[in-house]
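Sequence, please.
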């Protein structure tokens, strides 16, 4: 039996881990809430007329060209001139890479501002604005210095897009940014949604892979956790859609609740993502039974909701497609088995403590330790493959918000992995040998003390992942 002196170092280590956990969680929350708004890979590459240009002839169409296909959102393109708002019909090109706004009458002398909003392929909304001047009416023209025309007269007559001469497209920011709390709410919704899915999927995997024999009595408790994790996915989905709608209305919460705003928030891939996740969550809620065999519907719901995660974020636009999809699916499945399994193990530990089933606890922990080790290896390999695909240059790891968040996430994952490795190679063998000597009377205390910090650190990982889904990899 351990003496008080022998227990003291363990108490000190437990206190240190708890403090480290709180510090990392605080840093993760601050990063999520204070980070700048996210931007997708899709970029506005050219406009016609060019930003800051002076057009010698009336402009019959305003053309925006993007690096990847986009979907118009809301009015998509709004033109304001000397007399106020200018009505225009918005048409998207067949390949989706350009959007054209055609005024009822050509734009004549004056200064014009164009605001645009589109949805990228990954469902994220991007917006911005630019200005140009049309000659022929100098009394209402802004005194703002202008640049040389970006087009020759023949190009302007055809209204064909041309590149901005020396113009940095990254300077095109929207006139009215929504409050930061809205962006933070959307990211928090993504994190809640992901945490719920990880626990639901991992809980099902734990029940199927780890629990056996008389451990089946713990299935009901684990599957109850799975069921309510489906509710978390549903809540997170609703919060994310609401935040997206509020973003499109520039923080006007009343307008954000309108059917039109919600419809705009679900434009393109965003609608598919939210739909799959909502349907999957409802299926998990309704289809989780008292045993793993009676929870086939819940498993189907987890797969449907997981498809929404695969469609979401940067990996939805990366090539080669087969590699990205394979790595993304492996990464999600392995992370769920690890994270959700750890939560399920904590539930089982609590039940065993109440029922004084200490020997069973050691056996269950030993089985899960093997599953967790394999999952961690799969997470590492798939995560590296995804990072190499998404990053265009190595320096994006330390020069972009996305890269810095990825480094932070990796550091936390390594910390959790070290705790897991310590338990796998030291704590569990020690408890197993002690249980053998004492005929099943080994204390699961060390496992319980390490489980709480591991789960807390996992929450930090999910918060950072919620940020990574929408963060830009551009410096």
């Amino acid at each position: 039996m351990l003496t008080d002196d022998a227990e003291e170092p363990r108490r000190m280590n437990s206190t240190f881990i708890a403090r480290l956990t709180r510090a990392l969680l605080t840093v993760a929350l601050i990063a999520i809430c204070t980070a700048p708004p996210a931007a997708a890979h899709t970029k506005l590459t050219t406009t016609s007329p060019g930003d800051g240009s002076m057009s010698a002839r009336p402009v019959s169409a305003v053309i925006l060209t993007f690096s990847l296909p986009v979907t118009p959102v809301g009015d998509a393109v709004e033109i304001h001139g000397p007399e106020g708002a200018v009505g225009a019909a918005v048409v998207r090109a067949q390949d989706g890479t350009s959007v054209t706004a055609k005024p009822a009458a050509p734009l004549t002398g004056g200064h014009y501002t164009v605001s645009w909003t589109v949805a990228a392929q990954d469902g994220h909304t991007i917006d911005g604005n630019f200005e140009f001047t049309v000659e022929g009416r100098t009394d209402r023209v802004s005194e703002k210095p202008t640049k040389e025309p970006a087009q020759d007269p023949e190009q302007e007559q055809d209204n064909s897009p041309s590149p901005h001469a020396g113009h940095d497209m990254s300077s095109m920011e929207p006139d009215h940014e929504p409050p930061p709390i809205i962006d933070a709410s959307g990211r928090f919704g993504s994190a809640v949604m992901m945490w719920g899915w990880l626990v639901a999927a991992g809980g099902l995997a734990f029940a199927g892979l780890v629990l056996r024999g008389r451990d089946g009595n713990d299935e009901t408790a684990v599957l109850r956790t799975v069921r309510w994790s489906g509710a978390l996915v549903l809540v997170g989905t609703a919060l994310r859609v609401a935040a997206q709608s509020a973003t499109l209305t520039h923080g006007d919460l009343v307008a954000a609740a309108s059917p039109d705003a919600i419809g705009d928030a679900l434009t393109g891939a965003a609608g598919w993502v939210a739909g799959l996740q909502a349907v999957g969550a409802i299926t998990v809620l309704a289809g989780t039974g008292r045993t793993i065999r009676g929870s086939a519907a819940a498993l189907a719901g987890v797969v449907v909701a997981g498809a929404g995660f695969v469609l979401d974020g940067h990996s939805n636009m990366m090539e080669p497609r087969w590699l990205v999809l394979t790595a993304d699916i492996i990464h999600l499945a392995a992370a769920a088995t690890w994270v959700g399994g750890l939560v399920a193990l904590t539930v089982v530990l609590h039940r065993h403590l109440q029922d004084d089933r200490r020997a069973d606890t050691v056996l269950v922990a030993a089985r899960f330790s093997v599953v967790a080790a394999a999952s961690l290896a799969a997470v590492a390999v798939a995560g590296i493959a995804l990072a190499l695909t998404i990053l265009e240059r190595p320096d994006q790891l330390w020069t972009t918000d996305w890269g810095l968040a990825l480094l932070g996430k990796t550091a936390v994952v390594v910390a959790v992995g070290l705790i897991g490795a310590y338990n796998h190679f030291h704590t569990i063998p020690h408890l197993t040998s002690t249980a053998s000597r004492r005929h099943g009377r080994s204390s699961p205390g060390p496992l319980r003390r390490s489980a709480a910090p591991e789960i807390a650190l996992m929450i930090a990982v999910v918060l950072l992942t919620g940020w990574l889904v929408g963060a830009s990899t551009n410096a």
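The two ends are 57 Å apart (CA to CA).
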